[in-house]
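Q: I have 202 residues here and want to know how they pack in 3D. Can you give me a structure?
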Amino acid sequence: MREIERQFPRYSTGAIVLHWLIAALIVANLWLGQTMVGQHGLAKFNNFQLHKTVGVTILLLSLIRLAWRFVRAPPPPAQGMGLWERRASVAVHAAFYGLMIGMPLTGWLSVSASPTEIPTLLYRVGGFPGVPWPHLPIAPDLPLGQKQALEAAANAVHRYAAYGAYALIGLHVAGALKHQFFDPHPVLPRMAPFLRRRAIRP
């Protein structure tokens, strides 16, 4: 057992919880973003508030996750992984952090620069009126033309980042399945809370 733990060290409980919580929220928000297309009126307003709520939550949790990574260093790569695999893993993780932080920021910037000045009310569920979330500074005070240009640019980056998220999720899942079922260094039990170490095949 100790030899298996040495070869395939597990992430900390905090990292595992944050990983799966953020992953679930990202998938949910990608779906919410798609459902808003073509919506109008109150339905779109409510879904938009929910979309922003989930986005801000992802941003805050991602910053906590990044801080946690510095406080509790992640386990080293599984033994036997090639150099290119380690570099690819680092690149994918860095891209994920860029998306987890960058996507909410571009959405926040788009809302802040929008000439419609729709307020952001976080956690507006049922009869709860929501928690006001401020706009980013400077953006709301720009001239109309600059606000429109900034909103369009932020929207474009936000939209293409969503496409990048789909690609990264697919790449991440494919890589994990490859290591788990085709390589001699399975990685799923390192992060999956429902798999025990004894399930790791040597």
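Q: Anything worth noting?
A: The first helix runs from residue 2 to 7. The helical segments are 2-7, 13-35, 41-71, 83-113, 144-181, 188-191.
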